[in-house]
Design goal:
single chain; about 525 residues; about 30% strand
Length: about 525
């Protein structure tokens, strides 16, 4: 199959290829037509990765399919790798798709091609022949963790022509944890160490911080080193849930989470998580910050969306009036309330079922920063000042003391030397004579590493920096941290890492002793 491409003045052939061309753990694998200049020549791995894929190949066109893992024939899973007849029978019984909430708009008499095109159009707004829809129903094979780094071979026939395609299944890099607890315990007297270790055992929990990259902020122009197909939720929704659940966090704080990322929500709920309120798509609210928590560990007291369009409902008149009357802050309130982005945060006030004590988690995403516009950083620090007042109001509403354990995770778009970080760390920031403050003693979990905050938590071709943090209040201590390391590619997202931000994990516990800030000498002695 070929056609004349006037723009390139060459004959482009269409050949049968795997899609995605590089198999990745948990991502459905199917067949599609791929453009190539010379069908008789083997394209390089990079050429294949960045090729244009046109039109998926339907299951009923594929015959005699056999799958091998490292040359050992694969025993098919239920619902994956079916024969054409089996697949047709299954389709009659499984009309529900991954996009179940919009499936009611599809007509039952549509062909598979029309149905899948409708799915794409409903999600992306337009039908793009470069998007090959990925779902379980039409997958030839879904690689699992046990297939990582192994060669998968597909042998099949199309129109009586035999094919054999091979590729190696990719998986994310190994994880490395740092043990932080001994650095904290070194400051305690010997008789208190055993008491502290008991508290660590009884109250320890794992919290995750992760900006998962919303589709509405994604474009090939901004991520030129990433294959286009891997940038959107059609692909990333297959990597994200397992990427998160692998570590079994007790609490998951996400930013740039989209209601349309249905598989992510579905998988987390199935795994026993509950979440804070979701935004309203009918109001074109695309993304938000969400907090998920394990229902086996926590009982919800109050779950709240902190929407900056509703400041009158979030703050008391005594809190809001000074902000409205000040010439320094008033204009920024208009900016924050009118923005469609980075203005929907979350709070989850929970009761720990193990200890019966209360703990408050928050997920924030401050206004984006820009080295050329200081106005952005001023907006951030005002935004954070408001959020911390909302935190205090929620504790007061439930008659909880201000030293209730508090964890605020987020993409702060701010590093250790900048305004919002300073406000969180010191509890106060002077803005042209206007004092922004909060009443909590906070510490960044990753600042307890011997080397301090990581070098970066986001890595793209236009920006690399450390702008994500897990902030914890005075009663909390760190026992372990997931190290970021140097194994990430120069630009994210990648095929196996589904965001431009890096996932952060901290094991924390409630301490009975005041936190001691260690000096560099203390760290060296340990």
């Amino acid at each position: 199959m070929s056609y004349n491409n006037d723009k390139k003045r060459m004959i482009i052939a269409m050949i049968v290829s795997l899609f995605p061309p590089v198999p990745v753990v948990n991502v459905p694998l199917r067949l599609a037509y791929r453009e190539t200049v010379d069908p008789n020549k083997v394209d390089s791995a990079k050429t294949v990765l960045f090729s244009s894929f046109k039109n998926f190949i339907h299951y009923n066109c594929i015959e005699d399919l056999k799958i091998y893992i490292d040359d050992v024939e694969y025993v098919k899973e239920s619902g994956v790798g079916l024969t054409a007849d089996e697949h047709e029978q299954q389709q009659q019984h499984h009309s529900k798709t991954i996009l179940s909430k919009i499936s009611k708009f599809f007509k039952s008499d549509k062909s598979d091609e029309e149905s899948e095109a409708a799915q794409i159009k409903s999600v992306y707004g337009v039908t793009d022949s470069n998007i090959i829809p990925l779902n379980e129903e039409n997958a030839l094979f879904i690689p699992r963790v046990e297939h990582a780094n192994k060669q998968v071979t597909l042998k099949f026939t199309i129109k009586k022509k035999p094919f054999e395609l091979k590729a190696t299944v990719q998986h994310r890099h190994p994880r490395v944890w740092s043990d932080i607890k001994q650095l904290d315990l070194v400051s305690l007297e010997n008789e208190k160490i055993e008491e502290e270790q008991t508290a660590m055992t009884n109250s320890s929990f794992r919290v995750m911080q992760f900006n998962i990259l919303a589709d509405c902020y994604t474009s090939p122009a901004n991520y030129v080193g990433c294959p286009v197909y891997s940038l959107y939720r059609n692909y990333r929704q297959w990597v994200l849930p397992e990427y998160i659940l692998e570590h079994s966090p007790d609490v998951v704080c996400l930013q740039e989470a989209e209601v349309r990322m249905e598989r992510l929500t579905k998988k987390l709920v199935e795994a026993g998580y509950l979440h804070t309120p979701l935004c309203d798509l009918a109001r074109y609210e695309e993304e938000q910050s969400i907090t998920y928590f394990k229902t086996s560990r926590y009982q919800p007291i109050e779950l709240q969306m902190v929407h900056y369009k509703n400041l009158k409902n979030l703050l008391t008149p005594a809190q809001l009036d000074p902000l409205l009357k000040s010439s320094i802050t008033a204009k920024y309130l208009d900016l924050l309330s009118s923005s469609m982005h980075h203005n929907k945060f979350s709070l989850a006030l929970l009761q720990d079922k193990q200890t019966s004590s209360s703990i408050l988690f928050g997920s924030v995403h401050l206004h984006w920063g820009s080295p050329d516009f200081d106005i952005n950083y001023i907006a951030q620090v005002i935004q954070l000042h408001i959020f911390m007042m909302v935190v205090g109001n929620l504790l007061d509403k439930h008659s909880l003391p201000r030293d209730t354990p508090l964890v605020i995770c987020g993409d702060y778009n701010n590093g250790p030397t900048q305004k919002a970080y300073t406000l969180m760390d010191y509890g106060q920031y002077e803005l042209n004579g206007y004092t922004l403050s909060h009443s909590f003693k906070m510490s960044s979990a990753y600042s307890h590493r011997p080397d301090g905050e990581p070098k970066y938590t986001i890595r793209t071709n236009h920006f690399t920096g450390s702008i994500d943090q897990i902030w914890m209040s005075e009663k909390l201590r760190v026992s372990k941290l997931l190290e970021i390391g140097d194994h990430y590619p120069r630009q994210l997202p990648s095929l196996t890492d589904p965001s431009d931000h890096i996932m952060m994990l901290a094991d924390l516990y409630v301490s009975k002793h005041p936190r001691v800030t260690l000096t560099a000498a203390d760290n060296n002695q340990s």
